[in-house]
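Q: Please design a sequence for this.
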């Protein structure tokens, strides 16, 4: 047993227990806010495909939101260090609300892009919520606390797609309705933040770094050159490059490979969400205390490498009862609710025929999703937790903003690269290349993610009986 490992995770002292009463408002607000996002995510690629645009252009649409986050998240993260978490969180939520309203009125591809840009430019919701959770946790409970952000994502991916497709069924496939429903959830999150959320950053702790720019490439390079956190920032970027491509292109892959329509893709998102909720809402806290953040990072990279590689080998086999003509008609019907749009062009993604139906393709996907969901659920909160433990307290908001910008950069590049690979090398190429990248990252992490001050402190506490 290494020094990073706490001897027994069943005997947890007071400062190792997460204060759920303090975390609950943040969790609920993030969950409600994410419901708006997760209503849109499974729907947007299929909606875009119904316009007849290519996978590469669909990738560009997926990149619009995170590209704008690159600008917005670091700036608002620094501002939250200066002026508090609450006002910055409200500002970002108002931008999200406006983006969904615009999406509801969109009737061209250009307006779809503008809607995602408006939402993304104010997208500091998650980085600011992470900073609020960091304010409300100790080093020993931080991984579990940040994991609840991921659990909110998981719950969102369970509930959001269900809401989306119920609203589509009730509105005869009017794509405006899910966007307006998402706007409703965004408005609710604004009200909850205004009237329920209590500021987590005391006034006397604000503005400690006013001599620094809110964001600059100099600050980014300084963070990268920090030996304690530089490699972790590289890891969080590279793992999201693979995982973000998987998230953005999954619906197109299952459309092309299995002939899954919107409702069947929703089931896949719900399935993944259930696993992520279990990992990030329950298991990650136990695993962090037992194995330490460093080992969790190794395990997450290995699981993601296995799962992404497995997805790439999924047999192209629709389930029994599949009809190519019916799927083409459904995609065309997805735009009938928007009177201003021209008739649907041919879908630019190839669909499977009915000659080889069966259950092997679906079963393969469900099995491969398990290591993907566990590995993806582990990595982001664990890496962020380790980053916050290796910087000074007054730097946490800023470093999480930089981390968020790295995630946004990866999320911006992932669908573009993945869409080009999808279109030029085939639907499987984004996934096997992602699996290869994860395997290379695991080798890099084993060599460069070395024990830090948090492990030395944990070892000292263990030797001193926790004091």
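A: Design:
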């Amino acid at each position: 047993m290494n020094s990073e490992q706490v001897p027994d995770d069943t005997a947890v002292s007071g400062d190792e227990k997460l204060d759920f009463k303090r975390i609950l408002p943040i969790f609920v607000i993030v969950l409600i806010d994410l419901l708006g996002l997760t209503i849109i995510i499974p729907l947007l690629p299929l909606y875009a495909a119904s316009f007849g645009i290519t996978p590469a252009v669909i990738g560009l649409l997926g990149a619009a939101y995170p590209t704008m986050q690159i600008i917005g998240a670091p700036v608002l993260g620094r501002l939250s260090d200066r002026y508090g978490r609450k006002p910055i969180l409200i500002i970002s939520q108002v931008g999200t609300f406006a983006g969904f309203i615009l999406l509801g009125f969109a009737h061209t591809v250009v307006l779809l892009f503008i809607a995602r840009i408006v939402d993304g430019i104010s997208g500091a919701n998650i980085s600011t919520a992470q900073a609020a959770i960091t304010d409300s946790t100790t080093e020993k409970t931080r991984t579990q606390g940040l994991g609840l952000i991921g659990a909110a994502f998981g719950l969102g991916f369970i509930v959001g797609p269900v809401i989306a497709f119920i609203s589509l069924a009730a509105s005869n496939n009017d794509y405006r309705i899910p966007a307006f429903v998402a706007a409703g959830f965004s408005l609710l999150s604004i009200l909850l933040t205004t009237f329920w959320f209590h500021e987590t950053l005391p006034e006397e702790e604000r503005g400690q770094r006013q001599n620094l720019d809110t964001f600059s490439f100099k600050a980014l390079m300084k963070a990268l050159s920090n030996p304690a956190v530089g490699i972790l920032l590289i890891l969080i970027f590279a793992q999201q490059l693979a995982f973000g491509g998987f998230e953005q292109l999954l619906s197109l892959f299952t459309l092309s490979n299995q002939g899954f329509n919107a409702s069947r893709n929703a089931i896949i998102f719900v399935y993944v969400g259930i696993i992520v909720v279990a990992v990030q809402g329950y298991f990650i806290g136990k695993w962090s205390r037992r194995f330490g953040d460093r080992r969790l990072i190794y395990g997450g990279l290995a699981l993601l490498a296995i799962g992404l590689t497995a997805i790439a080998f999924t047999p192209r086999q629709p389930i029994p009862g599949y009809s190519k003509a019916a799927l083409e008609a459904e995609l065309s019907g997805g735009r009938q609710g928007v009177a201003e749009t021209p008739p649907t062009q041919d879908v630019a993604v190839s669909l499977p025929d009915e000659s080889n139906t069966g259950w092997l393709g679906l079963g393969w996907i469900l099995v491969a999703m398990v290591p993907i969901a566990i590995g993806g659920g582990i990595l982001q909160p664990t890496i962020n937790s380790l980053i916050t433990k290796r910087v000074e307290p007054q730097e946490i908001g800023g470093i999480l903003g930089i981390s968020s910008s790295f995630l946004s950069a990866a999320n911006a590049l992932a669908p573009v690269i993945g869409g080009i690979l999808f279109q030029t090398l085939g639907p499987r190429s984004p996934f096997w290349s992602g699996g290869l990248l994860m395997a290379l990252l695991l080798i890099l992490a084993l060599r460069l993610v070395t024990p830090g001050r948090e492990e030395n402190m944990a070892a000292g506490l263990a030797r001193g009986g926790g004091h």
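Q: Thanks. Anything notable?
A: The radius of gyration is 22 Å. Residues 5 and 291 are 5 Å apart (CA to CA).
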